[in-house]
Write a structure and sequence with these properties.
Layout lengths: L6 E2 L17 E10 L2 E9 L5 E8 L7 E2 L18 E9 L5 E9 L2 E9 L6 E7 L3 E6 L8 E9 L2 E2 L1 E6 L7 E7 L11 E4 L4 E3 L2 E12 L2 E11 L7 E4 L10 H4 L7 E9 L2 E8 L3 E8 H10 L2 H8 L5
Antiparallel strand pairs: 1-22, 2-3, 3-4, 4-5, 6-7, 7-8, 8-9, 10-11, 11-12, 11-13, 13-14, 15-17, 16-17, 17-18, 18-19, 20-21, 21-22
């Protein structure tokens, strides 16, 4: 099987800092949603001070013709939100109702990055729900519905210098989280995801379970290289991992992914299903935004064909 299951839709970025209505040094890691026939991107824009805001862009076809808002949806350094003084970063969007969306983002301040949530129905304005998980924590996203009455959120705390993907649970309120556990661990050693991992796009529902695209980093000659991998979670009990691909599925290869403010990086916060395809929007070299697509069936085939859990189970005599 060809390792590169994702195909880049264009041979260049879909958005760059030059496309913005405001001065910027970088354009990173958009969340994505579909609303009223538009593809809606939540752009992370880093200004020339180094501070990030979240701003909305809309397109009818999801590829070009982007209409970028003239003001931020979430902006930092507001008096009522001191824990966002240094930035609002890396928004991930989950649709939880007909027109209700929950935005999970990193609120960055002198105390470190924390997980914050906001609610919107139109992406014209957002209601902040505040910090829900304290520093150091980021890469958070929600599942779109409850399981046995509980919401589940994935997130990435730093614990003892380790960076694994954890889960947390909530009942009616999505602002009080408990019952934590580790979903996926960084693998350590020479693995492509051995240095750190984190949730990428919100989990994608398929007939076989929840498909999770996540990022992993490996130290290469003193510099991290970020690639993307896949895991499959149980449809009814998503805290149970069914399969995890040993190989990465998408890696920096083009000039705009290999060269930029932070070279050798592909990093996604958002993907949407269009028919039988996943369209993945991603930050490239922490500078511009790219777009790649893959068939859902091919992604599922990939995660099963390269299933790391089956391999280690067989080695331990646990799986046939």
């Amino acid at each position: 099987m060809n390792r590169q299951v994702f195909t880049r839709i264009l041979d260049h970025p879909i958005l760059t800092p030059d496309d913005l209505p405001c001065p910027a040094s970088a354009l990173l890691n958009p969340g994505v949603a579909l609303l009223d026939g538009d593809t809606v991107l939540l752009l992370r824009i880093e200004d020339r001070q180094g501070i990030s805001q979240i701003r909305v862009a809309r397109s009818r076809n999801g590829v070009d013709g982007w209409r970028i808002a003239d003001r931020p949806l979430l902006e930092p350094d507001l008096p009522d939100y001191p824990f966002e003084e240094w930035g609002c970063e890396d928004a991930r969007v989950t649709q939880v109702g007909d027109r209700e969306f929950i935005i999970a983002y990193a609120a960055y301040s002198r105390y470190g990055p924390a997980v914050a949530l906001a609610r919107t129905t139109d992406f014209e304005s957002a209601e902040r729900l505040g910090i829900v998980l304290p520093p150091t924590n980021k890469d958070a996203t929600l599942f779109p519905r409850r399981f046995d009455g509980q919401w589940i959120m994935l997130h990435r705390p730093v614990t003892g210098g380790q960076e694994h993907i954890w889960y947390a649970c909530a009942d009616e309120s999505i602002t009080h989280w408990s019952n934590p556990g580790v979903l996926l661990a960084e693998r350590g050693g020479p693995w492509w995801d051995g240095l750190r991992i984190g949730c990428g796009a919100p989990p994608i529902e398929t007939k076989q379970g929840w498909l999770l695209i996540y990022h992993g980093a490996k130290d290469m000659a003193g510099r991290p290289v970020y690639r993307l991998g896949l895991a499959l979670l149980d449809a009814d009990q998503p805290r149970r991992v069914l399969a995890r691909a040993s190989d990465w599925v998408f890696a920096p290869e083009t000039h705009y992914e290999l060269h930029g403010l932070v070279p050798d990086v592909v990093y996604t916060c958002g993907a949407v299903c269009r028919g039988d395809e996943v369209w993945m929007y991603y930050g490239a070299a922490d500078t511009v935004i790219g777009l790649a697509r893959a068939r859902v069936a091919d992604l599922l085939d990939f995660v099963w064909a390269h299933d790391y859990l089956k391999k280690i189970g067989r080695e331990k005599g646990m799986v046939g």
